[in-house]
Amino acid sequence: MKRIVLGVFLSAILGAAQAGTLEVLNSSVITFSNYDGQPATITGAESSGLWGYLSATSAGKFIATYLGNESAYVDKFSLNIGGTLLETNSLGNTISMTVSGPGTVGFSFSDDQGTGSGHTFSNGQSQTLPLGFAIMKGQTNKYGTFDYILGFNDSYTGDADYDDFVVGVKFVSAVPELQTYLMLLVGLGLIGFSARRRKELDM
User: Fold this and answer.
1) What is the pTM of this model?
2) Per-residue model confidence as pLDDT tens digits over 140-196
3) N or C: which end of the chain has fewer CB within 10 A?
4) Does pLDDT of 78 surpass 70?
5) Are 58 and 88 in contact (CB under 8 A)?
6) Contact yes or no for 24/53 (Cβ under 8 A)
7) How many other β-carbons are positioned within 10 Å of the β-carbon of residue 167?
8) Quick one: which of 45, 71, 27, 8 has its CA closest to 139?
9) What residues pair up with 65 in beta bridges, in sequence order?
10) How far apart are CA 44 and CA 42, in angstroms?
11) What does DSSP assign to residue 58?
């Protein structure tokens, strides 16, 4: 009986410890050259990544950190809810938003060219050259630890180097829900009851 109760308790702990993540969906490998300029001093030189889009596997917080830019256009990164990173920001500036559950994360890159407010490329859109972003491998650098590095390529047709606006992104899972805590408490209670019962039987 004690083993069964302990198993229930451990299952509850493991359930609480399970972390939500970011995953890349609809991905295809891309290669590029001339990733250079201000971002390279922080993220290093990159030459490959993925086209695709980022999706959260659970509720949590999506965090984006500005890592630099190398563009004659004025570019930016925006969360659907939670703010915008601009070229005028200091490197390492961070914005975040709460993600309510699994699904496509709401963010976009944009430049100041064209009619109206310029060109915008949102997470989840189909990638086409030149406008879009590369999803590069995660890393740790002087501004934090990131699940992925995102490099925007704005609408300038002279290159496709994905360093026009660069951000590091990470995802932090939501605090376990109330029912998880209840499971933990029930598990502790059952272990205590089992230990007491065994002690009574041993007397």
Assistant:
1) 0.79
2) 999 999 999 999 999 999 999 999 999 999 999 986 544 455 555 666 665 665 656
3) C
4) yes
5) no
6) yes
7) 26
8) 45
9) 94, 168
10) 6
11) S
Say whether pLDDT at 17 is over 90.
no
Extents of the domains making up the chain: 2-10+179-202, 21-176
Phi, psi for residue 115 in degrees, rounded to 5: -75, 160
Residue whose pair of structure tokens reads 């890159």 in the numeric block: 109
Mean pLDDT taken over the chain: 85
Distance, C-alpha 75 to centroid of its chain: 20
The answer to whether residues 48 and 30 touch, using CB atoms and an 8 Å cutoff, is: yes
Residue reference for tokens 């060109």: 119
Structure tokens at 72: 């004659």
**Strand extents, DSSP E, the chain:** 22-31, 48-56, 60-68, 76-79, 84-86, 94-99, 103-104, 107-110, 120-122, 132-141, 144-153, 165-173
